[in-house]
Design goal:
With 121 residues, the chain is mostly helical. The protein is 62% helix and 0% strand. Helix 1 (7-40) runs antiparallel to helix 2.
Length: 121
């Protein structure tokens, strides 16, 4: 394993990823439950319609972010403890020892994340 993590560290990362997945599932469920309620709300005037459209756009963005992060977390769980865990998927270098515990779902080093415009920071 490229990053020297103890069995306790790996267990901790797995527990954190599992807990994060549970929180994200709950967040996603909450956001998705709000969307139809908001969409069904009656539009009384143009200002209400605009506020509703803005709120729906925010909810959709929140749902997209939660889904993306949940996908990353779920993809990371089976990698914990495998030989490729801790290696950058883009360049193959070792992910910094401080980055991995901070973002256990990451699959890229900080250099590649920055080169990608910060999309995967």
């Amino acid at each position: 394993m490229p990053v020297e993590l103890s069995a306790d560290n790996l267990r901790d990362l797995t527990d954190r990823l599992t807990a994060e997945a549970d929180v994200l599932r709950e967040d996603l469920s909450t956001v998705e439950a709000k969307m139809p309620v908001l969409a069904a709300d009656c539009d009384l005037d143009a200002a209400d319609a605009g506020a509703k459209a803005t709120a729906l756009a925010r909810l959709r963005a929140d749902a997209r972010r939660a889904r993306t992060l949940l996908d990353q977390v779920l993809a990371a769980l089976p990698r914990v403890g495998t030989p490729g865990f801790g290696r950058c998927a883009a360049c193959g270098d070792i992910i910094d020892r401080d980055r991995l515990p901070a973002l256990p779902h990451t699959d890229v080093c900080i250099g590649c994340a920055r080169a990608d415009g910060g999309a995967r920071l």
